[in-house]
Amino acid sequence: MATILDGKNLREKILSDLKNRIESFETKPTLVVILVGENPASKIYVNNKKKVAEKIGINSQIINYPENISEQELIKKINELNENKNVHAILVQLPLPDGISKSNVINAISPEKDVDGFTPYNIGKLFSGEKPKVYPCTPKGILLLLDEYNIELEGKHAVVVGRSGIVGRPMAQMLLDRNATVTICHSHTKNLEKIIKTADILISAVGKNIIKGEMLKPGCVVVDVGIFKDENGKTRGDVDFESSLKVASYISPVPGGVGPMTITSLMLNTVELFMNNS
Ligand code: GUN
Q1: Residue 247 and residue 169 in one domain
Q2: What is the mean pLDDT of residues 33-51?
Q3: What is the pLDDT of residue 76?
Q4: Is 116 considered catalytic here?
Q5: Domain CATH for 194
Q6: Which of 55, 114, 125 is nearest to 82 (CA)?
Q7: Tally of structural domains, the chain
């Protein structure tokens, strides 16, 4: 029976330490979150970020623009926030509405305030094997979770399913930096099942229930980044939990695994940027 990778428990531990640290600061870190439009999932994520930030003493502000804001106006606001010494961290919630260029908007964020680690400077540092100002939140949270359970990465075959800029790509790079042997799979991958069968560490970030217990190598460590509602309204991940529990050595549940760690990393990154720039 696999051990559960408990993200909620680790979140509480890290946030309680962080809250104590923040209490000792004379000025408080400030995180500004920009939300464009009315995407219901994004609204929930953004409100959750604010709630957690406030709980641990980080000032946070949500700026909600209507869907029809121009790219130019959005970039003007980001420039203003870049100049504002009282703002330490800027996050633009993705996805952005059609007609606004994600790369133009993200590129406008100062790398010193780029709390997601998504700007070309920070991504470039990460992919050239150097240290970015901060690491992207979801992969960072996954590594914190694996480290908490002392899971060895060096020399292991890590298979990352999904190649998004938010999870799959930076995750693969960060695993490589930890001396894992990394394979990235995606929608065009041939023999996906064969590759999954060879994974010592499996990270799935697809958003579809594609992985069953019998596909896993016995003793595999399974990290499930997918989260969606099935046809009955039940929250699910990419991995069939019940059948995988019997084969894996460790498995992250959905919900309660990776999700809490992403928000924890966001808080850690906010404090890191604050420490570096105040
Ligand atoms: N949308 C889904 N995940 C993320 C994230 O980690 N950062 C931002 N900015 N938007 C997201």
Answers
A1: yes
A2: 96
A3: 98
A4: yes
A5: 3.40.50.720
A6: 114
A7: 2
> In terms of domains, do 88 and 153 share one?
no
pLDDT of residue 84: 98
Q: Domain range for residue 70?
A: 27-110
Per-residue pLDDT, 154: 98
On the 0-12 / 13-18 / 19+ scale of CB atoms within 10 A, 232 is: exposed
Q: Provide the pairing of β-strand 250-251 with 3-4.
A: parallel
For residue 121, tell me if it sits in a domain. no
Tokens (6 digits) for 45: 């994520």
**Residue 238, pLDDT above cutoff 90:** yes
Give me ligand 1 centre to Cα 270, in Å: 14
Average pLDDT, the chain: 97
* 47 backbone dihedrals φ, ψ, rounded to 5°: -65, -35
Whole-structure pTM value: 0.97
Instruction: Give the helix, strand, coil percentages of the chain, each rounded to 5.
Output: 40, 15, 40
Q: Could you tell me if 99 and 161 lie in one domain?
A: no
H/E element, 224 = strand 221-224
Residue 200 lies in a domain: yes
Residue 7 belongs to some domain of the structure: no
Per annotation, catalytic residue among 49, 113, 140, 156 = 49
- Please tell me the distance between residue 249's alpha carbon and the centre of ligand 1 in angstroms: 29
pLDDT at 278: 82
